[in-house]
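Many introductory courses stop at the sequence. We go one step further.
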Amino acid sequence: MLAKITAKNQLTLPKSATQAVGATEYLDVQVRDGQIILTPVRIQRGDAVRAKLSELGLGEADVADAVRWARASAVAPIAAEPVKVYAAAKKKPAARKTARK
């Protein structure tokens, strides 16, 4: 199948391709060996996650412990870094233009 990428990097997938994988709103995008690989991703709603946790007998304390463990195990903060860089950039005063003579 052939798909065209627009000047704004938008891509329209062939209907036969989207029907083959089923209805999905999000795609995981990976690049491997010069190929772009799109994989359908199903986003779970919060109530479905809570139901599964309940089914497994896990409560809020268990989730809090797991989050604490994951944060302590993390090698380096990944998601927070761009936020810090953005916040620092917002604090810098804009360069002033000098008046022309």
